[in-house]
Here is the input.
Amino acid sequence: MWDAHAVGPLNQPPIVYFCGAEAIRTLLLAPFVHDVRPTWERNRRAILGVGILSPLAYVLVLYALTRAPISLVAPVRESSVVLGALLGAKVLEEGQIAKRIVAATAIALGIAALALS
Here is the structure.
């Protein structure tokens, strides 16, 4: 809701709002970063993929919030949780598929209820 308020009534451009939030997050979390070289060497492609696609998805949501009411944007945004849970079970073989399907179904029903209200 804060995101919708920032890019709506406060008229913050989505990309400026995103960059400001990331700058603050970076300053707050930087003291807790340790040696990341081994992780970077093992997972460079995945890190780059997430590092590009995740911010892009967030900026697109911010842009959508400038064009549509939060009651329509938020349910669509939360659908990524459903997809992530199911992809984790199938693609990453994280297991517990029955629990994931039940949870994903509950989330999907909540999304539908929000969208219909």
Q: What stands out?
A: The chain has five helices and no strands. The mean pLDDT is 87.
